[in-house]
Design goal:
- There is one protein chain.
- The protein has helices spanning 31-43, 51-57, 88-91, 108-116, 134-142, 156-164; strands spanning 5-13, 17-19, 46-50, 73-77, 98-102, 120-123, 149-152, 170-176, 185-186, 203-210, 213-219.
- By secondary structure, the chain is α/β, with parallel strands linked by helices.
- The strands form two sheets. It has a nine-stranded mixed beta sheet with strand order 6-5-4-3-7-1-8-11-10, with helices on both faces.
- The two termini are 20 Å apart.
- The structure holds NADP nicotinamide-adenine-dinucleotide phosphate.
Length: 221
């Protein structure tokens, strides 16, 4: 089986933050970067996020204003079944499919409410950290429906899980010319490394200006 292409998209301050300490995060990057993100969504089969991002931002995660012929499958990692039926994602299944990856212990009424709304559910075992296992979730996605490319657009939790498990093959990093400082929220939660050689060295394959922002693309060695 071919290794799925897993892109991690980040839109951060110059010093790699995705939100201030109070959670404020809109908008860090400018309109051109946001437009490119919509193009990237249209170019991937799946756009994947965590329940933390959904509860914080209530995103739609569709590819808009880029002439997308088909919307990506929108996937949420939601171990305990917290995605509200009133969320923009659930309310927009008519625009494109939504799938929630959840753990073995969720409330039946929650599952029914989402299924009734047209959302697909995928139950996955928990990994070491007590979240749904991301590698299993990705294997389930790529094992069916001709899915070969996934773009992760999530907060620091899912980004750290994906990087820590070595699942990311490409990084699309949009960096705005602002500095938030160490009291802000880093794009990537702790990885627990203790030696420099534990950090994967990425290959920068492209760098370009995108409005006022910088767009860097990295690939795995
Ligand atoms: N600038 C950007 O590019 C960007 C993009 C997206 C979000 N954000 C910001 O990120 C912030 C949210 O950060 P966050 O860390 O809470 O969001 P997140 O990474 O989207 O979600 C984290 C949550 O996802 C669930 N989860 C399920 N499986 C997981 C797994 N395998 N690994 C990790 N988490 C898993 C966990 O909750 P359960 O245990 O309940 O499942 C976890 O608490 C918001 O402020 C948002 O604005 C920024």
């Amino acid at each position: 089986v071919a290794r799925p292409k897993v892109t991690l998209k980040l839109a951060t301050s110059l010093d790699g933050a995705i939100a201030l300490s109070n959670g404020a995060s809109k908008w860090i990057t400018g309109p051109q970067a946001r437009h490119e993100v919509h193009r990237l969504r249209a170019a991937h089969d799946v756009v994947l996020t965590g329940i933390g991002t959904v509860l914080a931002d209530d995103p739609l995660m569709t590819a808009r204003d880029v002439g997308a012929v088909q919307q990506p499958l929108r996937v949420v990692l939601d171990t305990h079944g917290r995605l509200p039926a009133t969320s923009a994602l659930v309310q927009s299944v008519a625009l494109g499919p939504v799938c929630v990856v959840h753990g073995p212990e969720t409330v039946p009424q929650w599952r029914t409410s989402l299924l009734d709304a047209g959302v697909a559910l995928d139950e996955v075992a928990l990994g070491k950290a007590g979240y749904v296992d991301l590698a299993l979730a990705i294997a389930n996605l790529t094992g069916k429906d001709l899915i070969s490319s996934i773009m992760i657009e999530a907060g620091g939790g899912v980004a750290a899980s994906a990087l820590g498990a070595g699942l990311v093959t490409r990084i699309e990093w949009f960096r705005a010319p602002v500095i938030f400082g160490a009291d802000a929220r880093n794009a990537i939660n702790p990885l627990g490394m203790t030696a420099i050689d534990q950090a994967r060295r990425w290959v920068r394959v492209r760098v370009e200006a995108c409005g006022d922002d910088l767009w860097e693309t990295y690939e795995v060695q």
